[in-house]
Structures are given as C-alpha cells and as structure tokens.
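Budget justification aside, the reviewers requested a transparent look at the raw inputs and outputs of the sequence design task funded under Objective 1. We therefore reproduce one unedited record. The lines immediately below are the structure tokens for a 211-residue chain.
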C-alpha cells in the first residue's frame, strides 16, 4: 500500500478497494458569486488532480446599463442580474465538461436551515446540474458536512484543513487555491472515496444509479 493510499484509508478508517476502471470525476462547489470546479482521475489506488479553478460571474451590470441608470438619476445596481450570472456559470461549466469529458459529476448541496444561502447556492446548483444533465452525465449530491467527514474525518473542519487534506490526498505541491476550487476537489474526492467504501450507494443521485 502506497503512502497516499494509506492516508486515504486513514481518512476513511477502512481500506479502500481499488477501482478496476479508471474514471474522471468533476467536483463542483456552486455559488452565485464564485463557483469552484475540480477534476480528479482515479486509477487503481492513485487519485490525481487534472485541474481546478473557479467561475466568477460579473458582479456588476454591463457598463451601458449602469450609465443609463446614472444618467436617469437612478443609482446603478451593485450586482449583475442573477439570470446573467447563472448563464455565465452554466456556459463555463459546459465548457469544462466538453473539454475534460468527465465520467461522473459530484455537486455540493446547500445547507438546510440557512434559507438565504440555500436559495443562492440552490440557483447555482441548478445550472450545474443542468450542464451535467445536458451532457448525459450521472450526478451525485453531497452535503458540506458529508464532504468534510469523508475527506478529513471531521465534519466541522475548516476550509484550511480541507485544503491541506486535499493537498495530501492528491499529492499536490501546495494547498489548492482559491478555497472554492479546493472545496470542489474535496467534493470530487468525497465521491471517489464513497464509491469505493462500504457506504457506496448511500449518496443521493439524480440518475438512479448508486453512488
């Protein structure tokens, strides 16, 4: 067992069976302001980061619209319309899926009880699910605490702890940045670890296939 495989086993508390067929997983951490994405490749006991980054929709309305509002003595909006931001997220994720050709997609779900955050995340989550569905990909949803438990063995771990564990599990030279991209890689890792664990099949999926 390699050092990294031992670390993965330790993070779950049990040996992780090796996958016989290599797969690529796209993890997504949805958000209206910033959406993170991370791609990992699983081959045997190896978990490799293929790439990660963020989608940052415009936070302000187009200049022309702002000038019209200023000239009309109406204060310019501080944020671009939600519909415009959602389109930008959808188009960017569609490009990632087209270029990377993942086999499966894992998306972080919203936190129940935080209404305003749930609405914002829910809107971004919806376009992420749409992009995956349009590509015919299976999708699984994971709660934030579930992701942290699978990756760090502690559901209340902070973002720094998650980034450090992601770095260790994927053998990166430094913690992935920005935090939204690190979280997306953690979502992908959670899905990968759950696929090979005794809990396989307990994750919620939109495709009817066990995750």
């Amino acid at each position: 067992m390699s050092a990294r495989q031992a670390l993965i086993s330790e993070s779950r508390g049990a040996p992780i069976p090796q996958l016989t067929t290599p797969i690529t997983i796209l993890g997504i951490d949805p958000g209206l302001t910033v959406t993170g994405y991370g791609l990992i490749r699983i081959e045997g006991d190896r978990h490799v980061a293929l790439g990660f980054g963020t989608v940052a929709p415009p936070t302000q309305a187009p200049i022309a619209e702002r000038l019209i509002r200023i000239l009309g003595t109406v204060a310019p909006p501080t944020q671009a319309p939600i519909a415009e931001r959602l389109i930008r997220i959808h188009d960017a994720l569609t490009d990632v899926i087209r270029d990377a050709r993942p086999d499966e997609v894992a998306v972080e779900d919203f936190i129940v009880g935080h209404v305003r955050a749930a609405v914002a995340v829910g809107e971004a989550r919806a376009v992420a699910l749409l992009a995956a569905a349009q590509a015919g990909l299976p999708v699984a949803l994971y709660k934030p605490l579930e992701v942290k438990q699978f990756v760090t063995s502690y559901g209340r771990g902070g973002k720094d702890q998650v980034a450090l564990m992601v770095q260790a599990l994927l053998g990166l030279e430094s913690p992935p940045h920005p935090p939204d991209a690190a979280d997306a890689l953690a979502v992908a890792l959670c899905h990968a670890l759950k696929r090979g664990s005794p809990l396989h099949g307990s994750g919620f999926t939109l495709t009817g296939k066990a995750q």
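Helices lie at 3-12, 63-71, 82-100, 115-134, 144-152, 159-170, 179-195. The longest helix spans residues 115-134. Computational costs for records of this kind are itemized in the attached budget.
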